[in-house]
Amino acid sequence: MIYADPRIGVELLPPTQDQPAFLQLEFSEPFEARSLAAYCVPLPDASRPSPEHAGTPIWLEVSDDGVQFRKVCDVDWGDSGEESVEFPATASFPAVRAKFYRILTWHARRITDFRMSGAAAHPPLGAQGQLHPLDWVRRGNRRSASGVDH
Q1: Collapsing DSSP states into helix, strand and coil, what is residue 110?
Q2: Alpha-carbon span 45 to 121, nearest angstrom
Q3: pLDDT digits (tens, 9 = 90+) for 44-97
Q4: In the chain, domain spans
Q5: Which fold has domain 10-138?
């Protein structure tokens, strides 16, 4: 999913101040990833997280069954405030293979581009071998923070 317009994308809205929002991706077969790159923008009119979660970064989790998840890494999105993001947030991590991946956040954000790669280094966006899992979401498959499929 790639949108040049920061007003278009997948919105992550925490359902309460005590529950993070997440975007869950399910692959038909386990996928091995070593890095991710994403563009996102804050949703300025959304409610703020509780003070205890205000400084918590976004994080990536994986699962083999979609029920039991384990944390892979934190993802530093930076603080772009009201501005458009001009560069992607990135994370490299030891290779992990899973059928389910999810990004969690306490902050309301709109993801406009999300890519995972099996490459160890951060490949340039659009490089061969990158997987575009949000195509799955764009087709109407998504799961809410409560775990309900839509």
Answers
A1: strand
A2: 35
A3: 888 888 888 888 888 999 999 999 999 999 987 655 444 444 677 788 999 999
A4: 10-138
A5: Jelly Rolls (2.60.120)
